[in-house]
Write a structure and sequence with these properties.
By secondary structure, the chain is mainly α. The chain has helices at about 5-35, 40-65.
Length: about 60
Amino acid sequence: MKIKKFLIHFVITFALTLVFAAIVSYLWNLIVHGQSTVDWETSFRLAIILGIALPVHRVMTSKEK
């Protein structure tokens, strides 16, 4: 996989994960704690991890085929 394709997949995965993690964090805090806050640290951390792991996994599985 070329680096340009890898970066595109990273950015897409990062953005989607960040948005969904922020929404889930917001809803969790609103329902359980009664506060309307977003845990940005955890959302950002999860987005970076999945942004790297999922494109790497895609590269590994495509080379096996």
